[in-house]
């Protein structure tokens, strides 16, 4: 009775998404993609779809700050507004005093 229209309580006619053959809804199976197909046209999902990667943690287990810290000292030269000579936080706009004999 496959392919013919007949009455079956609780069932209806359905079309296979692969072959287009008409069957009763009770004979069809739902594919993993959500399509209804004949049992002989149903294929399993590819096992590679379930593969997960291994997390690659590239951080160090622990770290600590360096032992010595650089502290900027404001001098006459570091207060200068010249680029490459003045130190951020010490510079004063318009200050053009620069003594080349003073060590920075």
Please, could you describe this protein's structure?
Among the domains are: 1-42, no CATH class; 70-98, no CATH class. 0% of the residues lie in helices and 10% in strands. It has no helices and four strands. It has strands at residues 13-15, 22-24, 29-30, 36-37.
Topology:
Layout: E1 13-15, E2 22-24, E3 29-30, E4 36-37
Antiparallel strand pairs: 1-2, 3-4
Q: Assign a percent range to the helix content.
A: under 10%
Number of strands: 4
Provide the gyration radius in Å.
39 Å
Cα(first) to Cα(last) distance is 99 Å
User: DSSP helix count?
Assistant: 0
Give me the side-by-side strand order of the main sheet.
1-2
Gross morphology: rod-shaped
Q: What is the element string, with H for helices and E for strands?
A: EEEE
Major beta sheet summary:
2 strands, antiparallel
List keywords for this structure.
10% strand; 104 residues; 4 strands; two-stranded antiparallel ribbon; 0% helix; little secondary structure
Concise synopsis of the structure shown:
With 104 residues, the chain is mostly loops. It has strands spanning 13-15, 22-24, 29-30, 36-37. A hairpin with a 6-residue loop joins strand 1 (13-15) and strand 2.
